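Late entry, evening session. Most of the bench is empty. Finally got around to the prediction I had been postponing all week. Sequence below, unchanged from the version circulated by S.P.
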Amino acid sequence: MLNEQTFEFSQARLKLKDALRFTMRQTSGNVEYLLEDEATGRFFRVGLPQYTFLTMLDGDRTISTALMKTATLLRQNAIDENEAASLCKWAIESGLVETEVGNSAERRQEQHDQIQKQNLTSYLNPMMLRLPLFNPDSIVTDIARFTKFIFNPLGLMVWLVVVVYGFLQLGMHWQEFFIDRIESFGASDLLWIAAAWLVLKLIHELAHSLVCKTFGGRVKNCGFLLLLMIPMPYVDVTSAWRFDNKWKRILTSAAGMMAEVFIAAIACLIWISAEPGPIRYHCGNLIISATLHTLLFNINPLMRFDGYYMLSDFLELPNLSTHGRQWLKGQFKWLYFGSKPTALKETGYRGLAVRAYGILAMLWFFVIAVGMSLAASSLIEGFGLLIAVIGCVLWVGLPLFKLCKFTLVGTDTENPNRLWFAGAMTLTSLLIGGFLGFCPSPSVVSAPVVIEFEEWSIIRSNAQGFAQQIHVADGDTVNEGDLLVTLENRDLQLELASLKIDIEISKLKIDSLFNDGEISQVQLEKETLTSMLERRSEIVERIDDLQIFATRSGTVLARDLGTLQGQYMEPGTEILSIGNPGDMHAIGLAEQTDVDWILENPDADVELQLWGRYESDLIPGKISKVNPRARDDLPNEAFAATSGGPLAVVPRNQVESENEEADGELMLTNPRVKLEVALQPEDRKHLLAGQSGILMIRNRNENMGRYLISGFKRFVNENNFRTHGL
């Protein structure tokens, strides 16, 4: 095998694989060669010196001889010994060359076993499982005969006009579209969106195939990619790398997104012109499916989807992802094994692009790995936890196993510096341990908060009637007994006037009956008169209740008091509140998961950030009371999203249909725990009832290690209990 212990590197004989195809290209005034491994379908880009040296590797020449012949042909442009060693190492790792024993039965069996192992690993990954089906090239060829007329400058112009016009029209009706989707959204909507999404994906992949075929490429295979068990069609159009014009390659990669956006634009025009009904409903689903997925996945260059291939073509960097990973791997070996990293073949902005992409793609990989594991564990009941565990083993466990194997036994071409690795890992462990053990956590318990009067009275209507006149405004100071609101009830007034007439008639009737000596009839009429007098007293009392007076001195609190003018009120309707100026405290609604910590830290410092004030202008406070039970009612309407607050609410009668008394009452979608916060006297003077903001309780006694562990445990306990019952 090719390593330092078996032979001298310069005397090694390497043979370039037969299944390689080189294509010369002119890019930015330089000569480059596109290397295609037809056996694996991978592409590589090399310069003229690298191409010349690689073609000298025929299995008969030694590396030293190949290097001398390259120098004879290229003179000062030839590569040196160090570059040749790095190039040979890269070619071996990429599977582009064979060693002296590479054709042996043992070597072929080893390569076959390696391929089988890679295939098995991919099939065991339930997060992202690729299922190839068949070669669709002949089918695409037949369809492409009838669609060639589309792929020309005129077709591009039509696409541009339709897309711009369609989305401009939707933009003019955006608010209507948004409200329509929110109001009509339901559980069945998800099913229709999924169906529309699957149809769009089929059209998406067909567009890739047709453009590739139109430009002279071929479609090798097609199938489904199961992403969290969600089927996503795919086609293999890697033959587009052979196109000389990079804009053809970019158009091949962009064709799927362009097809989806075109369909979405047509759906926009139909949605605008259609009446409310099934057609408009399904067009809305098409618009969402065709745009949301494209923005989140296809156009993202950090994932190996359309956006990545468009970027690599634009930068003329085939295998951008591979080169970025190899550079990052070299930096890791340099830091942890002390080995000299392989110099990048790309220079200038291309070298910077490879480095940046390697770093960003690795960060994105961790985000996706963690996000998909959490999504599988939380969304897929029962089986999701197993999927998350398998995914973590494949994404984390296997790389760690390979690292351990490399550290212990090395590879055919490398013998790791284990002493350097031990020192580097020790230093890394000390840094991580110091960070987790000594760095204070950013533990902040937050909750929405509203300023209220500490002692206040709610003024309610005691009678039925329309608000005829409102005598006060929000923020006015009133004294006990001041008139606040006057109601009007014409039915009561008419009934009182009619009753007065009936009473006078009854009195006259009693006098007449008494004069006629009909004593029994007099007694009956007196009973009727008594009943009418009692009714008059009740009506007079109800008319008196139409005038609403202040029950205490203080400040009026009523944000929408002016809107009550002319409204009809039932007995018990809340009109306004009155509180004492300066007697302010804060009411917060905390999440149930934070209550245990709040109860364990009753003396924790509280800070209030009120909207409309500078961020640095924090108001201190102390928690004076914690309601241990969660509640779904609103202590103040300022918390509700319908009033501009942060918490989602729904009408209670939609959830509790049997509760007729809840008509018009709002309830929280997620119950919260009420907190009362005492404020300092000097701060109360500058606050107004109804001000809202956020409450923050900072915990600096916990280190980062405990903070991360407790947060992870809480997440696992909540989600696995909810999803899996564990």
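Two things to note before I forget:
Residues 348-379 form the longest helix (32 residues).
Residues 432 and 536 are 84 Å apart (CA to CA).
Will write this up properly tomorrow.
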